[in-house]
Amino acid sequence: MDDLSLAWTSFDRERHLPLLLEADEAEEHIRGYLDRGQLFEIRDADAVIGVAVLVDDGDAVEIWNIALSEERRGRGSGRRAIELIAERCRQEGAARLTVGTSDCSLGTIAFYRKVGFRFAGVRKGYFDGYPVSVVENGIRARDMVMFDMELG
Ligand SMILES: CC(C)(COP(=O)(O)OP(=O)(O)OC[C@H]1O[C@@H](n2cnc3c(N)ncnc32)[C@H](O)[C@@H]1OP(=O)(O)O)[C@@H](O)C(=O)NCCC(=O)NCCS
Fold first, then answer.
1. Protein residue with least CA distance to atom 19, ligand 1
2. Does the CB atom of residue 73 touch ligand 1 within 6 A?
3. Do the Cβ atoms of 50 and 34 come closer than 8 Å?
4. Quick check: pTM over 0.85?
């Protein structure tokens, strides 16, 4: 199995933006949470295979972006990356890990449920004012579906 790790890093447009855009098509939105959060590279030994952006929110940490390079998906690395993020947040004293995705991202919803998140609510109308129109599975995104995981 892959030897995955998380490494805090500063933002490098050329290195990180293409991956960040895989999870969020709105670059101006990405800029906003990069300013408030911490960017991590998901590494397999020395190779960067993905990124995650974590933002503190009271006693919780929210994953604002997580993406693996296309050729690394579907092999358990996403599950392992969530475990590493949860471990890190737990060690730093967070009580919960939260994440949201659009109401049309049916595969991503399945992923979060499979790796241990539970449904935690809806941010109604979140995508109505979004800078880009998000469409997946033939559905236009309207609401953000929230998930959380207790870290206790
Ligand atoms: C979402 C993402 C991080 C998942 O990582 P991954 O390595 O592909 O997922 P894993 O292989 O670890 O899958 C873990 C489990 O979730 C399931 N799963 C993953 N993607 C799924 C999908 N699209 N539909 C249904 N189930 C899915 C897997 O089948 C697996 O289940 P199992 O353990 O029962 O076999 C990755 O696909 C990705 O980077 N996608 C593009 C960016 C993105 O959409 N990010 C999320 C934005 S909110």
1. 111
2. yes
3. no
4. yes
Edge-first strand listing for the sheet containing 96-102: 4-9, 38-44, 47-57, 60-68, 96-102, 144-150, 118-123
From first to last of its 152 residues, the chain has per-residue pLDDT tens of 469 999 999 999 999 999 999 999 999 999 999 999 999 999 999 999 999 999 999 999 999 999 999 999 999 999 999 999 999 999 999 999 999 999 999 999 999 999 999 999 999 999 998 999 999 999 999 999 999 999 98
Tokens representing 49 are 């295979």
Query: Which of 70, 106, 108, 144 to mutate to test ligand 1, by most ligand atoms within 8 A of the CB atom?
Result: 108
Query: What is the rounded distance in angstroms from the CA atom of residue 133 to the CA atom of residue 118?
Result: 26
Full set of structural domains in the chain with CATH: 4-150 (3.40.630.30)
Per-residue pLDDT of 116-138, as tens digits, reads 999 999 999 999 989 999 999 99
Of the candidates 94, 74, 17, which has an alpha carbon nearest to the alpha carbon of residue 48? 17
130 Cα to the center of ligand 1, angstroms: 24
